[in-house]
């Protein structure tokens, strides 16, 4: 299945599993350097999401202590 065949109303469970397997194989075949690049990008996204969802630390907050 390629991007031009993407129609959710016509997808079956088998199509989803096939697409998942194809994606897994594509990712497995990437060069190591590209995999590292992807991991770094995901870490960056995660770090930003944590910043946005973490309340500002104040002196009154117990976790505000410096280590």
Report on the architecture of this protein.
- The chain has about 70 residues and is mainly alpha-helical.
- The chain has one domain.
- Helices cover about 55% and strands about 0% of the residues.
- It is built from 2 helices and no strands.
- The model has no long low-confidence stretch (mean pLDDT about 85).
Describe the structure in brief.
The chain is an all-alpha fold and 67 residues long.
Question: Top keywords for this entry?
Answer:
single chain, 67 residues, 57% helix
Structural domain tally: 1
**Average pLDDT rating:** 83
**Structure classification:** mainly alpha
Major pleated sheet: none
Number of helices: 2
- Tell me how many strands there are: 0
Helix content: 55-70%
Strand content: under 5%
What Rg is obtained from the alpha carbons, in whole angstroms?
20 Å
Ends: how far apart? 52 Å
**Which blocks of ≥5 consecutive residues have pLDDT under 50?**
none
What's the helix and strand layout?
Elements: H1 13-28, H2 32-53
């Amino acid at each position: 299945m390629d991007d031009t065949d993407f129609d959710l109303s016509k997808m079956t469970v088998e199509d989803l599993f096939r697409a998942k397997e194809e994606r897994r194989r594509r990712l497995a075949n990437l060069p190591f350097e590209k995999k590292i690049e992807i991991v770094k990008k995901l870490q960056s996204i995660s770090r930003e999401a944590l910043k946005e969802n973490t309340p500002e630390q104040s002196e009154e907050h117990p976790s505000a202590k410096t280590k």
